């Protein structure tokens, strides 16, 4: 903010009409620019003094002190607002990052499981492990007759139609008379 801009905002400052971002720049400028500070001091004394006359308050004699306090208070308020905004942003960032980490680790788990499963399924043991289990890898537990048991088990468990046909067959056998129909 240059001097021209700062001086054009003096009235707005005194009437508390500056938006926060302009207010911050304004205070920074008048704090570092002697000319603008003096200009502000004159207006401030005039306007606040007249206002106090108007409201027949006790007229404060130390306007400069009042102006400094006003400037400090506003700057503190701005800093607090900024700090709150920053910490809100930090909280949001932390939440987003931890959410991403959580998602990412979930994805990693999935990828890992998928890799493991696909690695296993490339090995023929995978298909038979439910039945054979450790016998596949251990010669001493392995028994050739296991293969027969395996096929019997496979064929007896799942097929509903076979079961149904078997029951019909059984029924027919126990009711011999029905065979002729
Ligand atoms: Zn200036």
UniProtKB/TrEMBL annotation:
<feature type="domain" description="Putative zinc-finger">
    <location>
        <begin position="3"/>
        <end position="36"/>
    </location>
</feature>
<keyword id="KW-0472">Membrane</keyword>
<protein>
    <submittedName>
        <fullName>Zf-HC2 domain-containing protein</fullName>
    </submittedName>
</protein>
<keyword id="KW-0812">Transmembrane</keyword>
<dbReference type="Pfam" id="PF13490">
    <property type="entry name" value="zf-HC2"/>
</dbReference>
<keyword id="KW-1133">Transmembrane helix</keyword>
<dbReference type="InterPro" id="IPR027383">
    <property type="entry name" value="Znf_put"/>
</dbReference>
<feature type="transmembrane region" description="Helical">
    <location>
        <begin position="84"/>
        <end position="104"/>
    </location>
</feature>
């Amino acid at each position: 903010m240059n001097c021209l801009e700062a001086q054009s905002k003096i009235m707005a400052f005194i009437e508390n009409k500056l938006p926060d971002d302009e207010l911050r720049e304004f205070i920074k400028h008048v704090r570092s620019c002697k000319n603008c500070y003096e200009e502000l001091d004159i207006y401030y004394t005039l306007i606040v003094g007249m206002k106090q006359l108007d409201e027949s308050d006790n007229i404060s004699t130390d306007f400069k002190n009042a102006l400094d306090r006003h400037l400090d208070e506003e700057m503190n308020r701005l800093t607090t607002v900024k700090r709150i905004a920053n910490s809100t942003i930090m909280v949001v960032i932390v939440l987003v990052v931890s959410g991403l980490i959580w998602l990412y680790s979930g994805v990693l788990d999935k990828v890992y499981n998928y890799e493991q499963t696909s690695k296993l399924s490339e090995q023929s043991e995978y298909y038979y492990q439910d039945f054979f289990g450790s016998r596949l890898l251990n010669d001493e537990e392995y028994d050739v007759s296991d293969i027969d048991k395996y096929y019997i088990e496979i064929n007896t468990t799942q097929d509903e139609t076979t079961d149904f046909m078997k029951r019909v067959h059984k029924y027919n056998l126990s009711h011999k008379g029905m065979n002729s129909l």
